[in-house]
Amino acid sequence: MKDNIHQLRLQSSGAGGCYAFLKKLIMNKKQLLKHGLGMLAISGFMFVSLNSFMPAKNVFTAAEQQQVSIATPGLFAQSQAFNVDFEIFRAKEYSFPLPVGKAGLVNGNSVMRIETSKGDAVKAMFDGYVRLSRKTESMGNVIVIRHDNGLETVYANNAENLVKVGQHIDAGQTIAIVGTKNGTTYCDFSIMVNGGRLNPETFIELKSHRLRRQTVQFRKSGSRVLISVVGGKDSSAGRDAEAKGKAAKADGKTASKMGRGLTLNPDEVSDPFTITNTFELDLEKMERKAWAYPLPGAHVISPYGGKRRHSGVDLKTRPNDEIVAAFDGVVVASGPFYGYGNCIRIRHAYGFETLYSHQSKNKVKVGQKVKAGEVIGLTGRTGRATTEHLHFEVSFGGRRLDPAIIFDHSGHKLKPVTLHLTKGKGVRSQKN
After folding, report:
1. DSSP state of 328
2. pTM metric for this prediction
3. CA distances to 115, 133, 166, 170 from 163, in Å
């Protein structure tokens, strides 16, 4: 399927009030409670407020309980855009509504009609809360579930609804019995964002019932929501990168580990923490051109941490050697900074920043956009330094990390790990 940009007209202004998403994007409810987070919330984000956690919404207004298509309160309150990465969903976090059914599109491609046999059980696609469960004149028995990822799913023409408004639903849970009309047994399934219906084929392969492995961006533009595929293995960029990866023999990488659209360029991705509090970042999916080791050919002369609580890692080659940006980003500081000497700070996506210090010369200015691998300065010994070197730091949400979580210093490459990012909490690394 072509990765087109779709325009979705909002169908209602919706009820007011504060809408707090999320029970989970990655972790389930039990895991959240275990970690003392309760439920993932959103203080208006696609990923959450720093210090305040609100429960996922399970109480709905009278209007929300009566109307199938209604705007989601607060969905775009704090940000005009959010991304949903469908690559990170595990098997138990997604279910096709009728696994044995045959799917096709109707009603101008806004509804997926799934034909099946009498008595079959209708399943919830994702975790969420039941917003509507009632009989309507035009759609028969219908259920609407509001999900933690900002979407809503609609299940219509049910013979019997088995869930109630406010009830929490797990992905794959039976919510209804499929109905029959005019001799055909089917479920009319729809996906909505902010009350407007989307083409289900944007997210699901109709024949295989498989969730497309891609990242979709939802951006509010006046009375419309613009929907575009911005990355992932099943995006056009991801497929192109994978094809190139198969042809490339350099460094022995397989196609599955070649660039699949992932980048830390803040201009290309939306802040995920406008919708959820936690998500995963698989470094093996990062495009090769989207990262670079900050001082090629260097060796470590002082690691992170230790007795002197070193805030970064010291890398050494030779005086006036070229230092490069580790990732795409925007320069937010460039100049002398106390004991750091000549210092550069670059802002990346998802709350990441990198810092480079002790340069003999900075070659970038505040506000300048840089690409991974671009020369930003020369090694030196300005500030408190006893030898020419690069002091390199990585931070997430203002908290410093051991750069070795991300980089293999001996191999000068990204580590094959998945980073679990939690807003206000930090980063946990897990080997792939």
Report:
1. S
2. 0.48
3. 22, 7, 9, 12
Rounded to 10 degrees, what is the CA torsion of 36, 262, 368, 374?
120
What span, in angstroms and rounded, lies between the C-alpha atoms of 377 and 388? Answer: 13
Question: In terms of CATH, what superfamily is 299-431?
Answer: Glucose Permease (Domain IIA) (2.70.70.10)
Binned average pLDDT, 10 residues per bin, the chain of 432 residues = 42 35 37 33 29 53 94 83 83 91 92 95 95 95 92 97 96 96 96 93 92 89 84 53 41 34 80 74 90 96 90 96 97 94 95 96 96 97 95 93 96 93 84 86
Closest CA to 43 of 66, 65, 18: 18
- Report the CATH number of the 96-202 domain: 2.70.70.10
Spell out the residues 6+ positions from residue 30 whose beta carbon is closer than 8 angstroms to its own: none
pLDDT of residue 129: 95
Instruction: Give dist(CA 117, CA 130) in Å, integer.
Output: 25
User: How do strand 417-422 and strand 174-181 relate by DSSP bridges?
Assistant: unpaired
Cα-based angle 51, 309, 386 (whole degrees, multiple of 5): 130
Bridge partners (DSSP) of residue 302 are: 314
User: What order do you get walking across the sheet with 278-282 strand by strand?
Assistant: 278-282, 417-422, 426-431
